[in-house]
Predict the 3D structure of the following.
Amino acid sequence: MNNWSLTGRVEFATAEKLAEALKIQAHTKKVQVSLKEARGGSALLLVLLAWQRRCLSLGAQLSLVDASFELQKIAELSHLENLLPLVFNTKEPS
């Protein structure tokens, strides 16, 4: 399994480069990306969708873990929760 971590704020100006940044080896079957320190709303969602498409095209399974509650809500409101392999956090921020 390849483990990655996305940190910082994703802006539209950097989204295209980030979408291409995830490197997946041909033999890789599982890719896990921690989103614990990632922020960015819809620009972040665009990057994650691009990564999901790339993984699907290579036959790899993407798992997005540690997503913020805010990102989970944006995905739900955009009806993208079924397209993105987010591992949902069940606790709301206090």
The chain has a mean pLDDT of 88. The first helix runs from residue 12 to 21.
